[in-house]
Prior knowledge:
It is built from 10 helices and 2 strands. With about 270 residues, the chain is an all-alpha fold.
Amino acid sequence: MSEKNEKLTKKELRKFSLRYAITAQASQSYEAMQGIACVYSMGPFFEKWFADDPELMQKKFQNNLKFFNCQTYFGAAITAAALAIEQDRDPSSLQLAASLKTSLMGPFSGIGDALFNTIPKVVMGAMTAYAAIEGNWITSIIMIAIFTPLITWVRQKMIEVGYYGGAELITSRKDQLNNIRDAVSVLGVIVIGALIPSLVKVTTPLAITVGDATQTIQSILDGILPALLPCLVTAITYFGLTKIKGMNTVKMVWILIVVTILLSYFGVIA
């Protein structure tokens, strides 16, 4: 890490936290989800660190405008860790930061939803509902007054742990970065691959009839490889986005909608 790119102070991390909290849900899009929030929260620090290298600054912005979606508290911590990695001017930091975000957003979303969404809401809801039945309406206000600053404090601490942990990775373990980058990249590919069957729902109702026996095409495909059709759709989509000149996410979405409607109308897919 260059001498110029000093570690951020806790005050600067609070600025990062505020900018991420404001935009994490408000700026979501189908193409990047929380990518805009990442760029908005990181932007002032990129401008500070790389003002002397506009080309590198542009790469840093573009690197974090990619798809990212995570429970907001853990998402802020992961983005803070990526920010620490992005401080390095080494080109390898771009891939490492992107791979880190991709590989961690899925697992930490599940943990974060349980810790910060499901459990607190169930507990608070039960307590305030019971109090309301007893005619004690003030309990809900007290719970909000206690929970809001507590969760804000927890989020800030998670951001600090993420950022300083990422900075430690760059400064003290720089010689191991290639191995870490490769491991994180592989983990990211595994996570994305595991998500395909659950997020891409494609089956075919076509069947082959020989005499009195009927065999569905879907059962044959499942025998070859479960979730084969979702994998093929994902592969074709990836090929179109990366290999066809002028193709972008919006165009691909419209193509998928039209093709899906036509194939569904003719009974090819369900």
